[in-house]
Amino acid sequence: MPADSSAPDPSLIRALEGILGARGVVSSPEGRLTYECDMHTFYKGAPDVVVLPQSTEQVAAVVRLCRERGLPIVPRGSGTGLIGGAMAPRGGVMVSMTRMNRILEVDLPNRCATVEPGLINLWLSNATRPSGWFFAPDPSSQMVSSIGGNASTNAGGPHCLKYGITVNHILGLQVVTGTGDIVWLGGKVPERPGYDLTGVVVGAEGTLGLITAVVVRLTHVPEAVRTLLASFASIEDASEAVSAIVAAGIIPAALEMIDEVMVRAIEEGVGAGYPKGAGAVLLIELDGPRAEIEAQSARVEALCWDHAALEVRVAGDEAERALLWKGRKEAAGAVGRLTANWLLQDAVVPRSRLPQIMREMREIQERHGLVLANVFHAGDGNLHPIICYDENVPGELERAKQVNEELLRACLALGGTVTGEHGVGLDKAKNLPHQFAAADLNFMARLRRVFDPHGIMNPDKLLPSHPACGEGFRPARPELPRGAWV
Amino acid sequence: MAASPSAAITRALEAIAGPGRVCAEASALAGAAVDGVIPRWIVRAAAVEQVARVLALASSESLAVAPRGAGSSLGLGAPPRRLDLVLDLSRLDAVLDYVPEDMVASVQAGISLDALAGRLGQYGQRLPLDPAPGGMRSVGGVLATAASGPLRVRYGTGRDLLLGVRFVQADGVITWGGARVVKSVTGYDVPKLLVGSLGTLGVIVEATLRLHPITSAWGAWLWRFDAVPSAAAFIAAVVDSAIQPERVVLLDGAAAAVAAGEEARAEAAVAVSVASTAEAVAAQREALGALATRHDGRASEIGAGAWARLSEALTGPVVLRLAGEPARLGPWMVSLAHVARDGGVDLLSIGEAGGGVIRAALRTRAGAGVPAPSWLAGAVASLRASLEPEGGSLVVERAPRAVKDALDVWGPVAPEALALMRRLKSEFDPAGILNPGRFVGGL
Question: Which chain B residue lies closest to A180 (C-alpha atoms)?
């Protein structure tokens, strides 16, 4: 029975109101419906009740209550995830972190800050940038997504080519585990004896515990930033330019590729002034010490010309830089002009396999008669194919799903991964058995049970329902020499 | 199951690894002792499947196993509760897959940092990990011990560089975690769990690593200061600037002499290296010089050899690893100096900016150089008490058995976190055959 059709148990509501006060509990049908999905609207499931805690103690009390009653718990930040993560397929209690959004401390001498999980990513950098520091992870959603959500999904972003993904910037976490215990993992001191549990809880999508505070590393604002935009006749030329830049020992802060379909869509919409005949556009951003950036940007420009660039533009100041980024940032809006409906994908191949995956993607779309557009992080091989379809045309949605699966299989066949930065959620749990063997899945399932022995933390997410994830399953052990010693 | 006789187990191990690969000879076994505990066998595995079968046998016979790479850091950890089998991985030394364009390499765990560097250097790339005592260390050992060096301020540690890992669980099941590409969030980040786990959850047999380019230009300098606080103030100024150093270390007088390759003539020094383009190395040298002058630092050039000498200087009988708030690097180095002075012990200490880690070699002038265990236990306890409020720690990385018997080499771990670690250990190594007793909390 769908969760949103049944009224929540009144005794549960009373107990939660006792913990959080009446204003901290949302139980009306219309209130709960606003929490039924994240940005991946395929997956819908409203919780029985939503709580809005203001302290770690409240979160712990909620988890203990859910443990007693055997209710699933789903954490939610800003709800901007793309994986069917912050939704409640089994109903239960959703813990929304939006009221835990304070910066608890900025400690510049120790290059770190302690924040509550609901804090919006960009707000932290806005607070610290005047002092010369910023929080490096920059998912495209950073204006609205929360740091707790970024940590839970181990979010990436255009600049993680140079700066690394979220986990590289998390020093410590306060976590409420599935047993309701409050645990501090890590902290301001960058290392401590014992297992790196911080590193495991980051990216666990709330399945190992609810993050209630985050100690993040801050990064010094670079002395100089230089942005280049290079247009090419074909994606092959652009891919070769990417290879040449990397081969020259240059790691740009960002290296973004826009393919022909997207270039056309952007030009037909806002218009970014790309040259006629451009089949691919590379957006290259370098940052660091000024002298380094000047030498490298001259080199990058030369390499682009060497690889048949049609045009290379260089931004000298912030206004010009914003202009070059404009097309890239408009991409999401431009998709609406391309298609009625679309599926945004997130997968990774080794950088050297980009030309091959581009060819395979063309074959896949031709086979199914659907259009694929692509705006992606070329520097780390992180693809974001946009599968265009029209739900009003019979069969197109099914074909889009087929394209989706074939794309993921193609990436795996080239040594890649089914998600580079969005996460697994409900959406990709079924794909894990294609990437991991039974023994690998079993290890992860047992790891999960250590933190969540009652199976209440964001169930159905991150791991598939697969025999290897079952409680009694043990992978086959290697054979011992027979009769040699017993 | 009743324990099988030794000779039968020897035959079984030989059936797995080959006759020449199992050693049960007394003098060799004595040489493989860990903290004085002598194993009954040394097995040199030449394939992942052999590691798997040896562990399956060990778990069925309840044999305690200590994995070993280059063997340079077996001193890390508490004395083993028991030890039957040293599992040597140094023959697992292949580069399995290396596509320079991807800047990713998959290697077997036994390969040395030096051998890997030789291979990567041909393509202008490197794995930027520089743990003490040097490049003879194995990749697997470096990861299992979470070893790092001054390069961490720029490139992070094994935690940041390990993308994927193949390991063998205690029961012999070969397991993979992570990915072979630079970016993946598919499933749990299992590699993080293995880094620094000292082989207590599984034996690392393969690693997929993120690489970095070797820059076209490089420079290294030393600034001498009259006291640690002014040197530390210089470091704080560097950290709070747009300079992107590759290494920044705070050196006490003894370490300064090692870095400069001459007698100490300074109370403290800061050594910095910068890797970039030629223009940027020159520009950053100038910016560093200006900051140093403001803090009364006196400059000299140091060669590339200085870093290796510093690494090797940390190989005394007793080595401590103190981790505190990065901003308190200077005060902690001063505290260490006071403790050593009060105990009449010679000290050489090196602090890593950014990481907040100070590594210190302690040595007495008389005898074998080993400080009295009771004195050291007291000194460690008092430093830990002062570190506790900021969440710092002090690990005795190397010490003779007599010292280890007098203290806990790891120090305390917060009880809530330790409870989770215990549950992990009992889930993945229920019989306690992987390095029993050597890790935190007696795990």
Answer: B416
